[in-house]
């Protein structure tokens, strides 16, 4: 009897401390990705709204992004959104646009280096877009979403 009570207590505490995760499964290959709680993500919903923030889970089978409840079947796309990557992308974009802007000033002054500055600035600005492409988007066309206990 004592063993049964200990076993029941173990299962009750185990289920209370079970961690919820959002599991993404690729429809074609079966590859699985997992998003854990407190991970920074960007979610687009079927109604076209974008939510960026930390991932949390509610007891109603919904995910919470920035305290906004979203059902897993209402997700259009989801991707990881680390702050460091966003900061680097913004810095590179601003630097590229500043170089392009300086090329306009040099061209207005009659300088011959304006084309070179414009080309370099354009390349740096395009690099910001390439940085964004490293972080892939997981769309509901290729992935299924469900909340699981880990």
Outline:
This protein has helices at residues 2-16, 83-108, 114-134, and strands spanning 20-26, 32-36, 40-45, 50-57, 63-65, 68-70, 75-80, 138-139, 143-149. With 150 residues, the protein is α+β, with helices and mostly antiparallel strands. A hairpin with a 4-residue loop joins strand 3 and strand 4 (50-57).
Topology:
Blueprint (H helix, E strand, L loop, with lengths): L1 H15 L3 E7 L5 E5 L3 E6 L4 E8 L5 E3 L2 E3 L4 E6 L2 H26 L5 H21 L3 E2 L3 E7 L1
Antiparallel strand pairs: 1-2, 1-9, 3-4, 3-7, 4-5, 5-6, 7-8
Strand count: 9
- Shape type: elongated
Instruction: Give the SSE string.
Output: HEEEEEEEHHEE
Low-confidence stretches: none
Q: The biggest beta sheet, please?
A: 6 strands, antiparallel
Tell me what portion of residues adopts beta-strand conformation: 25-35%
Overall pLDDT score = 86
Helix content: 40-55%
Please give the count of helices.
Answer: 3
Rg over CA atoms, rounded to whole Å, is: 23 Å
Structure explained in plain terms:
This protein has 150 residues and is α+β, with helices and mostly antiparallel strands. Helix content is 41%, strand content 31%. The chain contains 3 helices and 9 strands. The chain has helices at 2-16, 83-108, 114-134; strands spanning 20-26, 32-36, 40-45, 50-57, 63-65, 68-70, 75-80, 138-139, 143-149. The strands form 2 sheets. Strands 6-5-4-3-7-8 form a 6-stranded antiparallel β-sheet, with no helix packed on it. A hairpin with a 2-residue loop joins strand 5 and strand 6. Helix 2 (83-108) runs antiparallel to helix 3. The chain starts with a helix and ends with a strand. The mean pLDDT is 86.
């Amino acid at each position: 009897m004592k063993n049964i009570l200990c076993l029941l207590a173990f299962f009750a505490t185990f289920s209370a401390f079970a961690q919820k995760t959002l599991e993404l499964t690729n429809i074609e290959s079966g590859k699985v990705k997992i998003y854990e709680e407190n991970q920074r993500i960007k979610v687009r919903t079927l109604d076209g709204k974008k939510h960026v923030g930390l991932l949390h889970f509610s007891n109603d089978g919904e995910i919470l992004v920035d305290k906004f409840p979203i059902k897993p079947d209402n997700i259009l796309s989801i991707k990881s959104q680390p702050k460091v990557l966003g900061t680097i992308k913004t810095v590179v974009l601003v630097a590229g646009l500043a170089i392009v802007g300086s090329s306009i000033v040099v061209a207005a002054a009659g300088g011959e280096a304006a084309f070179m500055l414009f080309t370099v600035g354009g390349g740096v600005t395009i690099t910001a877009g390439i940085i964004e492409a490293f972080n892939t988007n997981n769309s509901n066309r290729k992935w299924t979403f469900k909340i699981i206990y880990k």
